[in-house]
Write a structure and sequence with these properties.
By secondary structure, this protein is α+β, with helices and mostly antiparallel strands. Helices cover about 25% and strands about 25% of the residues. It has five helices and nine strands. The protein has helices at about 50-60, 65-75, 135-140, 145-155, 175-190, and strands at about 10, 30-35, 40-45, 80-85, 110-115, 125-135, 165-170, 195, 205-210. A nine-stranded mixed β-sheet has the order 1-2-3-4-5-6-7-9-8. Strand 8 (about 195) and strand 9 (about 205-210) form a beta hairpin. The radius of gyration is 18 Å and the shape is globular. The relative contact order is 0.16.
């Protein structure tokens, strides 16, 4: 499935690049985009996002992990994580001219992805996609595709690892339920340049992207 035609990058934060455990230079902290008719932005996760991440995980019926496991995953892999957020619509101001509010707008997490590096670094490292979760109501809007592509671009630009790997269960069955979700994720991975390796697609396999 191609990325939404309406996708536009609005701005990139001037925040200095972040250094991950591999001493890589990460892209800007925040990027704003338009997906369909909604404004979204992506940024790395922090431990403060854990509760929102867990709500998305429960709603998406993804792999089952405990809150403690998720908390550890977010804490230990913040530089190689990415969340996609939106903000509630701002009601039109009754003042003329409108006065912008100084209060920060609340963020609504729509989905997130987390990667873990192996013991290598830079040229020799492998980055494993631990999980990717998107609210079900946002999937058809292309949010998952935008999230994955944004994350992959950041990891490649930062030269985090030589390759990115996603383990798949295989045996897609009748294309319903969990099998349907896996088939959908495979499509997103292919759109981002991943190819099937190390398996026949029935007993489990890996999808791999060579970054450099």
């Amino acid at each position: 499935m191609p990325l939404p035609a309406q996708l536009r990058i609005l701005s990139r934060s001037n925040t200095p690049h972040t250094s991950c455990s591999n001493s890589c230079n990460m892209p800007p902290q925040r990027t704003s985009l338009i997906v369909g008719d909604i404004h979204v932005f992506v940024r790395p996760l922090t431990p403060r996002d854990t509760e929102d991440c867990y709500r998305v995980l429960e709603a998406s019926h993804g792999i089952s992990i405990s809150f403690e496991e998720l908390s550890t995953l977010v804490r230990d892999n913040s530089p190689t994580s990415l969340g996609i957020f939106t903000t509630p619509p701002v009601p039109p101001s009754t003042r003329r001219p409108p006065t912008p509010s100084l209060a920060p707008h609340p963020e609504i997490l729509l989905g997130f992805i987390i990667g873990e590096t192996d013991e290598g670094s830079g040229e020799g490292a492998t980055l494993k996609i631990s999980g990717m979760w998107v609210l079900p109501e946002e999937v058809e809007k292309g949010v998952g595709q935008v999230l994955l592509k944004g994350w992959v671009d950041r990891m490649k630009d930062g030269r985090v690892a030589k390759r990115i790997v996603k383990s798949m269960k295989g045996g897609l069955g009748d294309g319903k339920g969990e099998g349907k979700e896996e088939e959908m994720v495979m499509g997103w991975l292919r759109d981002s340049g991943f190819a099937v390796r190390d398996g026949d697609g029935q007993e489990g396999f890996r999808m791999v992207l060579d970054c450099f």
